[in-house]
Amino acid sequence: MAKNNVRQVTKLFCLCLILVGTSACRNSPTKVEDQQQNFEIESDAVSLYSSESVQLRALITKEDGTKEEVTSSTLWELSPGSIGTISETGQFLSVNNLTGVETISGQYNGEKASIQIEVTRRADILGLWPVLVNVQAGDQLQFKCAATFQDDQEDWVTSKVTWSIEPGLAASIDQNGLLQTQAGASGVEKIIVNYHGWTAESEVAVQATYQSPFDMVTIPAGQFEMGDDNGDPDEAPRHPVFTDAFEIGKFEVTNAEYAVFLTEALRRRIVRYDGNLTVKNVPPFRHVFFGKVPDFDVQQFFIYVPGETPNEGTFETLPGFEDHPVVYQTWYGAHAFAEFYGLRLPSEAEWEKAARGGQQLEFATEDGSISHDLANIAGVGGRDIYGQTAPVGSFPPNPYGIYDMCGNVREFIRDFYEPDYYTNSIVENPAGPHNLEDILLRRGRPDWLLRDGSWQLGSDKARCANRYHLIEPHDNVVVTPVDGFRIAR
Hints:
With 489 residues, the chain is mainly beta. It folds into 3 domains: 33-120, Immunoglobulin-like, CATH 2.60.40; 123-207, Sandwich (Immunoglobulin-like); 216-484, paralog of FGE (formylglycine-generating enzyme), CATH 3.90.1580.10. Helix content is 13%, strand content 34%. It contains 5 helices and 32 strands. Strands 1, 3, 4, 6 and 7 form a 5-stranded antiparallel β-sheet that branches. Strands 2-9-8-5 form a 4-stranded mixed β-sheet, with no helix packed on it. Strands 11-19-18-15 form a 4-stranded mixed β-sheet, with no helix packed on it. The radius of gyration is 36 Å and the shape is elongated. It starts with a helix and ends in a 5-residue tail after the last strand.
């Protein structure tokens, strides 16, 4: 009986222990919602510009749906680790001027997650062309946009920028920069591009009847004989060339016209005046040199007059030189002038075709001969009373009605120079031996090409077929008193 009592007491004690343990478990249960259900990495941005940073966050999701940040307890890794670094606290820092994709991984309690961060170049400034342009109603016009990036490299971003137009009543523009004007419409439209936080603007005058800001002559489509087998070696062989119809400036661009361009470009911050230098301020050709204004060792033709701010200054022609052809400018300055107004420099084939006057003239004069009565060449005599440049149009035009394609100043051409280009030139609309797009992005430095004679050279150098090249130095600071240009369309 005593043993049975002991057994019953023991059973009762054990039962009490079980009940107490069960009660304790009920009062302090294991929290299933505290169990880790998911591990992930978040970032406010998955695309950065090089040299920027972003804070990553490591999170676990509990069973009840709430999240807990475990960033500081996460083990971080980076692959390939060539364009950035990751700190113990999850901050990713990209390396300046390096681009690519980094995979950032984190480990926590045996779980692993990752995220990819793309690092791209940041644009420093935009250049939009043309800037001020007239367009015939119903016509199209292709705009181009270039960017200079933080590594000082330039590239076209025409298809990458965001395009818009205001007010959009006379024209529309697509996301590739193609402007389509409405037939019969007229009005002024503003073209706006946005990229990497930068903005650039252009102005388009849609005209019911197109009016060029410059006097132009239309050259009909057709074939002519280009080159000269009896001239210098780089003029041979004489060969047939066909060009489409085009327009070319009746006169060489003048000091007054170039001063207006520089003043407007300065106001729009497209150029800057630095000492006595005019310098491109936007791509393409950012930082390249246009010309000297004034030049300390040459006769002055126009000057810079300061304003209240650097961008409010003006360029003014000295009295008596307004109608003289602009000189002391580089090829870049000539090209930028043409592009500013939606025009261009003539190709070498176009220039020679226009010079020959439709009659295969040897000299681009009134009758194809050469004398001081017909052109401003070295020395003086007859109508040629000018020791240097003459006002444009001072001598009779050639049969096409174009002035000063013989003498006065040599003229920059759109194409670049190769001495044997004529042996490889195509027959129809030849465009020179180099890709102009590469030149615009400074991926090559071929020699500049000029045509025409000048006030400093004799009659032999004023022949229609004569070719000149000017070697561009490293700093591109080459300007002469004999080199100008005319525009084409």
